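Justification of resources, computational component.

The compute hours requested in this renewal are based largely on the per-chain cost of generating structure records like the one below. Each record pairs the submitted sequence with a full structure-token output. That output is archived, and it is also reused by downstream analysis tasks.
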Amino acid sequence: TSTSDFVSAAFDCQTCGACCAYFRVSFYWGEADDAPGGTVPVGLTQKLDHYQRCMAGTSTRAPRCVALSGEIGQQVGCTIYPVRSSTCHALQAGDAQCLRAREKHGLPTA
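The structure output for this chain reads:
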């Protein structure tokens, strides 16, 4: 068992969802499915500039990704999990960003 396995078990994303309702989920426009090889459904994104998009709902004062279902801290799921952006892939359970989002939502960080 590795340390990352322990951290993942301690912070179950399917009972959390804090990161999906804390950060702006921005990524290179070519990750959207209107670009060759893109996977993120373009209809769930917003254009930020010529090179970037973000998940709809995450570029607001009270962000919440449009692809997040469920109640934060209870039971959640990503409705596009298999085709989510590289930004979502990069965030790991228990990393500094995860802990910051959990703290903001009043969820345990240890």
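Residues 96-104 form the longest helix (9 residues). DSSP finds three helices and five strands in the chain.
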